[in-house]
Design a protein that fits this description.
This protein is α/β, with parallel strands linked by helices and 260 residues long. It contains nine helices and seven strands.
Length: 260
């Protein structure tokens, strides 16, 4: 097998059972990284890892619940034990959101779960990975998956607020870890069906009409950007930034009808 962009790397990918996380985990494994996928959905996660192994890739699945107390610490420890060293962290896990979870509809329990999985886990995983990489003198890389709604309200306050916080966590980690050669960036996807985003419920036709490229995105679209950020060949001097992968959705003026 030819060596890929990430030959010799070892990666932990949260949310690896479906959607964007799965797409990124598959891309990293196919580019030569040894990958641990972590997710609350054990059946799907093990299925992704098994399929990758059938391709001759090095993939392992770890079941985890990042909403639970100590969940992020435990999953990083388990990944480090399985891999021996972790040189790449991708935090893509996020609970499914529902259009009914508005300002007046979201429950305290739903708020807490979203913030714990998205924001708290982003910080804890980044902190643990940073310590691990710094102590072992690994020039590591991290990607945190945020959202367009880190900067634009979505009428899903728990989701938008947690994603906005994740953007600042990424910047704080990048500033703290840059001096030891560890790069930290974010990806802000647009409308990518699968995982936590239900395209039908959100109005796929309406969103497509508002997207410059005229289609919804795919996990593979996001995985390509993640590979570019994680590969020193392309992004050795990139840290503390957010790459938007949205097909031009953010270009739309929501006060006006779509351009003809």
């Amino acid at each position: 097998m030819a060596e890929g962009l990430l030959a010799g790397d070892t990666a932990l990918v949260t949310g690896g059972a479906s959607g964007i996380g799965r797409g990124i985990a598959q891309a990293l494994a196919r580019e030569g990284a040894r990958v641990v996928l972590a997710d609350v959905d054990a059946d799907r996660g093990e299925g992704v890892a098994t399929a990758l192994r059938a391709e001759g890739r090095d993939a392992t699945f770890i079941a985890c619940d990042l909403a639970a107390a100590g969940g992020a610490e435990r999953v990083f420890g388990a990944a480090a034990a399985a891999l021996g060293r972790v040189s790449i962290l991708v935090h893509s896990a996020s609970p499914r959101r529902f259009e009914s979870d508005t300002v007046f509809g979201v429950s305290d329990e739903t708020w807490d779960r979203m913030v714990n999985v998205n924001l708290r886990a982003a910080f804890v995983l980044g902190r643990e990975a940073g310590r691990h990489m710094r102590e072992r003198k690994i020039r590591g890389r991290m990607v945190i998956v945020t959202s367009l709604h880190a900067e634009s309200p979505r009428n899903l306050p728990h989701y938008s607020a947690s994603k906005a916080g994740m953007t600042m966590v990424m910047k704080e980690l990048a500033r703290a870890l840059g001096p030891v050669g560890i790069r930290v960036n974010a990806i802000a996807p647009g409308a990518i069906p699968g995982g936590g985003f239900n395209a039908a419920a959100a109005g796929a036709e309406r969103i497509t009409a508002c997207t410059a490229l005229g289609r919804l995105g795919t996990p593979e679209d996001v995985a390509g950007a993640a590979l570019a950020l994680l590969a020193d060949r392309f992004s050795a001097y990139v840290t503390g930034t957010t790459v938007v992968v949205d097909g031009g959705l953010a270009l739309h003026n929501w006060l006006l009808p779509p351009a003809a």
